[in-house]
Amino acid sequence: MDAPALPVTLESPESWQVAGPRLRTATEESTWVRWLLVGSTLLFLTLVLFVPLAAIFAEALRKGWEAYFASFDNANFWAAVRLTFLATGISVPANLIFGVAASWAIAKFDFRGKSLLITLIDLPFAVSPVVSGLIYVLLFGMTGWLGPWLATNDIQIIFAVPGIVLATIFVTFPFVARELIPLMQEQGSEEEQAAISLGANGWQTFFRVTLPNVKWALLYGVILSTARAMGEFGAVSVVSGHIRGKTNTLPLHIEVLYNEYNFVAAFAVASLLTLLALVTLVLKTTLEWRIQRDLEEASRSV
Amino acid sequence: MASLQTQHAVLASKAPQSGSFFDEPGSNVRNSNIPSQKSERQQEQDSTTMSIDVQHISKTFGTFRALDDVSLKINDGELVALLGPSGSGKTTLLRIIAGLEAPDPNPGTSIRFYDEDVSRRAVGERQVGFVFQHYALFRHMTVFENVAFGLRVRHKSTRPSKEEIRDRVERLLSLVQLAQFSKRYPSQLSGGQRQRVALARALAVEPKVLLLDEPFGALDAQVRKGLRAWLRRLHEEIHITSVLVTHDQEEALEVADRVVVMNNSKIEQEGSPDEVFHSAKTQFVMEFLGQVNVFHGRVQRGKATLGDLTVDYPHYSGEHEQPATVYMRPHEFEIRRASNGKPSFPARITRTHSAGAVARVFLETEDAASVLVELPLDEFAQLALQEGETVHLYPKNARVFVPSESQ
């Protein structure tokens, strides 16, 4: 049924507007505060982010594209690329398995020492990479605890590929677990309980229920971990020994080139790592959006 | 909690003529209300086999005792409701039956399904269908995949063929009236639809026993009412032994063949909905099921007294006077303006409201106790009660409880 028309006419909205500057609403800051905050943020970002980023490419291309590409035509460069991919290729899968196992244990089970385990996972975030490199030197170096035994058995860890891989694993191991734990905790273990009540065994439950539920967060952790593994400098620098063509990763290779005043080559290689970082950033943003959705869904269904 | 000496007593008055409007001692209201249904169920129970039999179950979480030596038998094809407030242990008992939780290892503890000891079997080996309060659907699978899961994860030797799985899933989806939703994801369904998917998923593995943990707890009242009527019809159709956990007494009384009332980690009372509602054995059951008016009286020499009223209470024949609690249900009163000589007590009407199936009259007695009376609407209209007027209340039935330690 239609409501009877009310004998009221409203004034046109235009007549409400006040001439002169727009007045701020109750939830807004005044104009100059807004400009000050936005302006200072932009200035800061320009100084510490955009200018250095542009400088990398400017320096790399200072002598033209030919000189830029010539920097990659070098055996030591390719050795560094191979080593970087090797270290990443071992450390990322290792941390993937470790991270999934740790977060599965932490999120779905109760046990003694759980908070200690969480603290340990965070340790690499708290420890300086140089210190973590030194720990390995202390352990496996010639004068280290295990050094003499390793020497008699002819096993080389420090100043060799195993040391670099170990150092990379250490600095990147929180990434996967840190991503998974909050999501898995939010999702709870009801779906797993449902799966086992339907007759699924542990592996089936894990691969068909647990893993698909966290796939985006897992991918996110892997990407962060990959980016860090490729870019790690401090810890790797300590254990590598800087043997050209043998134990130099890409970041170490850049350092060597820079120290030799070979700026174009140094910045050209640096630009590769920068591009890698930009790709990571795009992937990360896309994934963050998906994970947010997973989290919202998890909290909504509870 | 202290156990309470409990007895269903029937009001009788000191005046001999007053007995006429009360039931005969020993009988109760239930018999007049629901005659045949109950006895049918009773016969069914007697002739069938035991399906679930749990004995002497205790469960401790840290220092909290969730279950304290609980034993329960459930008949084949029965729908039993475990009813109680939160923290009463009902969900823990259900999870122990399912095998999702292990009871404390005490001698005498046993869990048997159809005379088979299953206490050492994992949940997946017990052939139970478990329905969770928050559905626990696999969020990354379609409705179809969810229902098919239990069949797909079977070992090759017992796994049905693809066609059989598809047929069975489709049959189950039409049973729960969701055939057209098979390609949807759980997030695209309403709460009620999700719970029906969960039910279909649990039934897909052809369980011997269906266990439902507050299945309608997360749904709004309207959907809940529809679903529980539907669940009852479904049970009539497939007759699977079912245990339903709920804190909603209305739900338990409406759906279940038998209600097991739990409180403080123990079973307070079990029986048909009529039994537990109309002849509550403990004070807790009396208060938990339906509304009650509570009065404080005294017992002495086989009689309980409350003002002018006297109730036979043969369980206490001592000389020493004891305090007693007297319960009267809101619908077990008669309201009269003038006294007719029978025992009654006067009360002043503070508020009335008749927007509902029954009219509710709120009153206050002389000693400031508040009383709620429910009247049929026509009777209410006939009386034309006014707020503020004083009337006489005639209880039709009363139950007396005396704390046992004071005997």
Brief descriptors of the model:
heterodimer, A: 302 residues, mainly alpha, MetI-like fold, disordered N terminus, B: 407 residues, alpha+beta, Rossmann fold, OB fold (Dihydrolipoamide Acetyltransferase, E2P), 2 domains, seven-stranded antiparallel β-sheet, 32% strand, sulfate transport (chain A), transport (chain A)
Descriptive notes:
The complex is a heterodimer of chains A (302) and B (407). Chain A has 302 residues and is mainly α. Chain A folds into two domains: 33 residues, no CATH class; 237 residues, MetI-like (MetI-like fold, Orthogonal Bundle), CATH 1.10.3720.10. Chain A is 73% helix and 0% strand. Chain A contains 14 helices and no strands. In chain A, helix 3 packs antiparallel against helix 11, helix 7 runs antiparallel to helix 12 and helix 11 runs antiparallel to helix 14. By secondary structure, chain B is of the alpha+beta class. Chain B folds into two domains: 250 residues, Rossmann fold (3-Layer(aba) Sandwich), CATH 3.40.50.300; 113 residues, Beta Barrel (OB fold (Dihydrolipoamide Acetyltransferase, E2P)). Chain B is built from eleven helices and 22 strands. In chain B, the strands form four sheets. Chain B has a seven-stranded antiparallel β-sheet, with no helix packed on it. The N terminus of chain B is likely disordered. Classes of the chains: A mainly alpha (302), B alpha+beta (407). Chains A and B meet through helix 9 and helix 10 of A and strand 8 and helix 6 of B.
